[in-house]
Amino acid sequence: MLDFYNLLSLNRKFDCIYAINTLLHVPKNDLSKVLNEIDISLNEKGLFYMGLYGGEDKETGFIKSDVSDAPRFFAFHSEEFLRSVVREHFDVISFETLDLETDIFHSVILRKR
After folding, report:
1. Is 44 exposed, middle or buried (0-12, 13-18, 19+ CB in 10 A)?
2. Any idea what DSSP says for residue 88?
3. Is the whole-model pTM more than 0.85?
4. Which ranges in 1-113 belong to alpha helices (H)?
5. Cα–Cα distance between 29 and 63 in angstroms, integer?
6. pLDDT tens over the chain, length 113 residues
7. How far is CA 13 from the centre of its chain?
8. Beta strands in the chain (DSSP E)
C-alpha cells in the first residue's frame, strides 16, 4: 500500500502532484514530513496542488462516519498554520481560503523551489 508517507519508494519524479481532501487525514505533527516527501518526489519546478478543509487548528480522534465503516482521522488547519508550513517546502503560487458557509476550504497551488 502506498501513501504520502512513502512516496519515495516509487523511485520516480513527477511534474505535478494533486492532493484533494487527502492531507486532512495527516496529523499536524506529520504534515511537514509529508510535504517533504512530496517536494522530493517532484521534478525541478514541479507543481503541487493541495485542497483541504480547514478553519481552526484542531484534530479529531479516529471517528466513524456514514461514508466508511473504517474510522478516519481528521486534521483541520488554520490559514496561518498552513501558510507557514507550506512555505518551508515550496513557493506559493496561489493560496485561496474559501468560506463555504458550513466549512472553510483551502485551495493551494505550490511550486518546487
Report:
1. exposed
2. T
3. yes
4. 31-41, 79-87
5. 19
6. 567 888 888 889 999 999 999 999 899 999 999 999 999 999 999 999 999 999 889 988 777 777 777 778 889 999 999 999 999 999 999 999 999 988 999 999 999 99
7. 18
8. 14-20, 42-54, 58-59, 75-76, 90-99, 104-112
